[in-house]
Structure prediction request, 503 residues.
Amino acid sequence: MIGLFHFRQGPEGRRVSSSGSALSFKGVVALAGQFPVLAGVDLELPRGETILLRGANGAGKTSLMRVCLGLLPVVSGQARVLGFDVNHQKVAIRKNAFLLGHQSGLYDDLTVVENLRFALKAARKPLDEIGRTMELLQLSGRLGDTRIGQLSAGQRKRVGLAVLVARQPELWLLDEPHASLDALSRQVLGQVINDAVTRGSTVVMASHEHDAALPRVDRIVFMAGGRVDHVEVIKEEASLPSTQPRVGSHDDPSIPLSPDIGESNTDTSSEAGGSGSAHVA
Amino acid sequence: MWRDAILVAGKDLRIELRSRVATNQIAPLGVLILVLFAFALGPDRPALQKASAGLFWVAILFSSVLAVQRAYAIESGDAAREYLRISGLDPAGIFVGKAAAIAIQLLGIEAVLGAGIAILYGAKGGAWLIVVVTSLLATVGLASVGTIYGVIAGGLRVKETLLPLLMLPVAAPVLLCGVEAWNATLGVHLNNALPWVRLLILFVIVYVALGIVAYGPLLEGT
Prediction:
């Protein structure tokens, strides 16, 4: 797998290997105020894959992503992202991971180009990616000089996505990335996600989408009540034997898979113990 | 830190140039405060002249609260504050940048209100060097205090009402030093301005240092 053992020295200390995992959560409890939004998450996700988070509203999908960036404190357990400790190496994580959430962190009074320049300069990334990224996300031309406050929700989302694409992080965290996007933009989103994974990035995405707009997914993490319910590994070819332990089942008819996912085989089984958490090595 | 500070200050000032909140709302409010004080104190010109330094700095203090609120209001839309946390910017740079942007806006407002007390109260200039140095120091002090307490209040739901309660008591020494130093130089009384300027320097050093050290934890923790 691309970048599996590709470690770099972080400014806050040494990156600790966790078998090349993108995410390594062990008994993670995280609070939002007094409320435990993650209630003992055990999860190990490899690098270089597209991982889909599934679950009802309030299941903990968004919180899991926020914890990854140190936006919510971990009060118990151990959480490592890209080999860095979430509580103590936030700066290193944030240099290598980025989130596109329901909101995009854009400034209404700045133009599209100005927002992109600010975000890239803040991340110390070269500005020469701006033109190509804007072209890719159909933001070039007149739109580039338009203030964010004058854009539609879908256009804003595309600008937020452009920031993410231009930053080229190792870990992409996408929270409902399809919301507000039209069919063409969804196609582009799928393409940029596939490109990112091809380059070796890991994409973790929470989505309620069930249609073909979803990109190819390698793994589905089902969440409920602030815990990982089970994990499903998607195999590309029927003949390919699974190298993953059997960890869960996809027996909930209310959660259909996307056509892309449905075309591939799934390797699943019921989780033992019923502890409400699952572990995929 | 300085690179990030310039980036953040540039962003905040560019947004201010577009939205014109300081020029169209905060500065006029400061002038309005001076006018209302003039109404409240009556037509007694000598009394107004005597009180001009105090009234000027009270107006600046209230204006600074609004400038700080505006500086954090631009970070509250579209979850910008959260993205600022994950942007990769050095928190000390964010502090210096935001404080610098607020200070530059306050200096502009001070110029307007300075003209205001000259016209409305008949205040006369004194030792200009002391006046300018005092103004610069007090402005940096107010901007630093405001940026520190702004980030605390900005993370809370009651930020609009909480900020003045947090900021004004801490900024009181700036008011005191500014008024006393100006009174000395404007000839209201003959006390020496230098002790007040020294006190102001100490205040500025403490709050700038505190902001540089504490801004990151405050941004993360509130």
